[in-house]
């Protein structure tokens, strides 16, 4: 009987270690992945639109940290510049964009954990937990979208600089609280930029993001704005200028 219990215990431990491994996580994500490009893109657009809303994380943080005054709230809205800009995101290939967003959101998860530990003192903050789940959901969908794009001919490119430089928290203080709310402001702004770029993606898997309807319209507008060359018509023989 003891031998059976020992074998079961060892089996449970091995199974637990396997489930914690990156390969097992990837396999589990693959099993849950949708094979519909349109469905994944729609979910990513909706998630980005939801996560740019400051009332879901930044505003509750401001109130909980005693920063809810006109002056301090204005300082909080001076968003951190630690995030990639919208223009920089738009210049990336689709795969490069997805990898950059996923890596940046991973940094955000670490920063949220630091804020939870140093400022919120481990308190159960529903908004923080919801934000964490939303970020994990976006990263899962990004993983699935990358799986669909693996057959594309896009060349892998390096990730844009993320938020890693801001992850080490200083001693908890007023300035750390202010830095925290500016970071969250930057996070919401970043998700707004992510939503804008996703909105420019074509609705089919074969569509190229750089050939989105918006870019085509801009290109046509630029062509129309070019000064036209005036072509001189030849003067018929025998016709004289007066």
UniProtKB/TrEMBL annotation:
GO BP: any one term: oncostatin-M-mediated signaling pathway
UniProt cross-references to InterPro entries, sorted A to Z: 4_helix_cytokine-like_core, Leukemia_IF/oncostatin, OSM
Q: Which GO terms describe its molecular function?
A: cytokine activity; oncostatin-M receptor binding
The record's section on Pfam families has: LIF_OSM (PF01291)
Q: Could you tell me where the Basic residues compositional bias lies?
A: 219-235
State which residue ranges cross the membrane: none
Q: Which domain of life is it from?
A: Eukaryota
Region feature (Disordered): 219-242
Please state the span of the N-terminal signal peptide per the UniProt entry: 1-26
Which Gene Ontology CC terms are recorded? extracellular space
| Predominant place of localization | secreted
Any idea which UniProt keywords this protein has? Answer: Cytokine, Secreted, Signal
PANTHER family membership: ONCOSTATIN M (PTHR14261), ONCOSTATIN-M (PTHR14261:SF0)
Its recorded name reads Oncostatin-M
Q: Which organism is this protein's natural source? A: Fukomys damarensis (Damaraland mole rat)
